[in-house]
Specification:
This protein is mostly beta strands. The strands form seven sheets. Strands 10, 11, 12, 13, 16 and 18 form a six-stranded mixed beta sheet that branches. A three-stranded antiparallel beta sheet has the order 3-5-6, with no helix packed on it. A three-stranded mixed beta sheet has the order 17-19-20, with no helix packed on it. The protein is built from one helix and 20 strands. The chain has one helix at about 90-100, and strands spanning about 1-5, 10, 25, 40, 40-45, 50-55, 55-60, 65, 70, 80, 85-90, 110, 115, 125, 125-130, 150-160, 165, 185-190, 195, 200.
Length: about 200
């Protein structure tokens, strides 16, 4: 605008010029991993630096397929229900339960709630399909005599198939050592290959 410095008269009125609006720039986010939190994308103005969209923390999380993390191969934990029984409905949870028992929780109870396939096509015409290198190796439940399984494992008439075991550990199977109080019931194991160091073979 313009004004007179003597009489202060406004010679030319000022006009309102609308704001230009923000010039937006993406603040790159970070993808979460299995163990580290991530961040969502944010937005800021490159002129005034105002944050237009705040970045949000994305929790660390596994991405499971059949109970195995596709990123780090971690096992999906079995859910402990209100009765204190672990519910197993996929292969990863079965492996997780085996690790739990072998780690000292000998009396943990479990129930199988779905048919489970660990590996596909372990057997061809009753024999091992290939050399076994493409299959996920099973670690039996109760690997030591002093730590034999002592809980209740209820298969609820479900089937576990595709176990592959070929290891230096003596003995093999879904279970190896069990205590006197162990109950393993209503479970079918099919299409699996189990071989111990002593040459015993089962399929």
């Amino acid at each position: 605008g313009v004004k007179c410095t003597v009489c202060e008269e406004i010679v030319t009125e000022q006009e309102i010029i609308p704001a230009n609006g923000h010039t937006e720039q993406i603040i790159p986010g970070k993808t979460p991993t299995c163990t580290e939190e991530g961040l969502s994308d944010g937005v800021k103005c490159t002129v005034c630096e105002e944050i237009l969209i705040e970045q949000q923390v994305l929790p660390a999380s596994h991405t499971y397929e059949n109970g195995f993390c596709i990123l780090c191969d971690a096992y999906e934990p079995a859910r402990l229900n209100d009765e204190g029984i672990y519910e197993i409905d996929n292969a990863g949870k079965l492996y997780w339960f085996a690790a739990l028992v072998n780690g000292g929780e000998r009396s943990a109870n479990a129930v199988v709630t779905k048919d489970i396939t660990v590996n596909e096509s372990v057997l061809v015409d009753g024999a091992l399909n290939g050399d076994g290198s493409n299959f996920r190796l099973w670690t039996p439940i109760g690997t030591e005599a002093s730590k034999g399984y002592a809980g209740i494992f209820d298969g609820q008439d479900h089937t576990i198939s595709g176990l592959y075991y070929d290891s230096a550990l003596y003995g093999g199977g879904l279970f190896v050592y069990t205590g006197a109080s162990a109950v393993i019931k209503d479970l079918k194991l099919t299409n699996s290959y189990i071989r111990s160091t002593h040459g015993a073979e089962w399929s």
